[in-house]
Design brief:
The chain has 322 residues and is an alpha/beta fold. It folds into three domains: 164 residues, Rossmann fold, CATH 3.40.50; 63 residues, Helicase, Ruva Protein, domain 3; 36 residues. It contains twelve helices and five strands. Strand 3, helix 5 and strand 4 form a beta-alpha-beta unit. Helix 1 packs across helix 2, helix 9 crosses helix 10 and helix 10 crosses helix 11. The chain starts with 25 loop residues before the first helix and ends with a helix. The structure holds adenosine-5'-diphosphate and magnesium ion (MG). The site of magnesium ion has 3 residues, from helix 2.
């Protein structure tokens, strides 16, 4: 909508992770190098963590794009809420093996044979699990078993897990110590600092077609974006996108701090309702949810009742008695 007005070819703040927009902060660059060289050097098992929206999926996609130039075969699990059988079948299927209807042991055998074949040709095979903090203990055990596929010298399958910081905590647990010992490389993404946020905004705008040496967001506006987004790239995108829409609506040639402030306020980014249930033990959380549902039902019934009463009053007023 605002593209023609601001003379942009592309939408600069698309929310989908597109490697061509990568802004390499030192941490993102280090994480990308870790992924790329870790996989190329057969490190076996790599874990990348970071808060929601810090760029994990973008990094994984960027690494895959680089690695695909090197004849690598990869399977990517983007939603790891699967049963162990579905998980291994999905991976084998993504590698192009036909394993429909096969039992888990058979699928693992087929995978093993496939990995060995590739290994003999000196080809690298990679499994990526994104959103890996959702992996159940059962699936983490499957991952551990997959790290067992190896020759005397090398792991046959390179594995990258990317997930939110809960993944680090899970992997630090006593039950998973065996898996943890196999992690060869670990890296963490952080939100951007204020200067990085400004660099990030500029880079995205220039990739989207803004001529070099021109600015669309004033310095103070970019500082305001940092304030509202706390340097989290996904939030930077949302705030900037809304600021551009609002700037366009006001025919503003440049985005000022006021425009960003308004966009940030409308998005209510600073307002976070604490997730009470996340801090409770499982049974108490279930009880909490049940009580909440009952209270909501109670409110709903009360509203229905007063609405009914109102209709009754209106009807008795509108229909004249005979
Ligand atoms: N270093 C970066 N350079 C450019 N864009 C980034 C960067 N980090 C994150 N983003 C953008 O922020 C948004 C959220 O990133 P994403 O990879 O989906 O986060 P996560 O997977 O950690 O939740 C995406 O639009 C992505 O393109
Ligand atoms: Mg992601």
């Amino acid at each position: 909508m605002y593209r023609a007005f601001y003379k942009l070819r592309l939408n600069p703040f698309e929310i989908t992770p597109d490697p061509s927009f990568l802004f390499p902060t030192p941490r993102h660059r280090e994480a990308l190098a870790t992924l790329y060289y870790g996989v190329r050097a057969h490190k076996g098992f790599i874990v990348i963590t970071g808060e929601v929206g810090t760029g994990k999926t973008l990094l994984v996609r960027s690494a895959l794009q680089l690695l695909q130039r090197t004849n690598i075969a990869s399977a990517c699990v983007f939603n790891p809420s699967l049963s162990p059988l579905e998980f291994v079948r999905y991976i084998a299927g993504d590698f192009g093996l036909s394993v429909g209807g096969k039992a888990k042991d058979e699928v693992i055998l087929a995978l093993n044979a496939y990995l060995r074949q590739r290994h003999e040709k000196r080809l690298i095979t990679l499994l990526v699990v994104d959103e890996a903090h959702h992996l159940s203990p059962e699936l983490l055990e499957e991952v551990r078993l997959l790290t067992n596929l190896e020759t005397a010298q090398q792991k046959l399958l390179q594995i990258v897990l990317a997930g939110q910081p809960e993944l680090d905590q899970t992997l630090d647990s006593w039950e998973l110590r065996q898996l943890k010992q196999r992690i060869m490389l670990r890296c963490q993404l952080e939100p951007l600092g204020q200067n990085e946020t400004a660099g990030y905004i500029q880079r995205r705008l220039h990739i989207a077609g803004l001529p070099k040496n021109t600015t669309l967001f004033s310095h103070a506006a970019m500082a305001m974006v940092f304030k509202h987004s706390r340097g989290i790239p996904r939030l930077i995108n949302t705030v900037c996108e809304n600021a551009l829409l609002s700037g366009y609506a006001h025919c503003a040639p440049i985005i000022t701090p006021d425009i960003v402030e308004e966009a940030g306020r409308d998005l209510r980014l600073g307002v976070i309702t604490p997730n009470v249930t996340a801090q409770l033990p499982k049974e108490e959380a279930e009880l909490f949810r049940a009580v909440k549902t009952l209270l909501e039902l109670h409110d709903y019934l009360r509203e229905m009742k007063s609405a009914e009463a109102e209709t009754d009053i209106r009807l008795t007023r509108e229909i004249p008695r005979a």
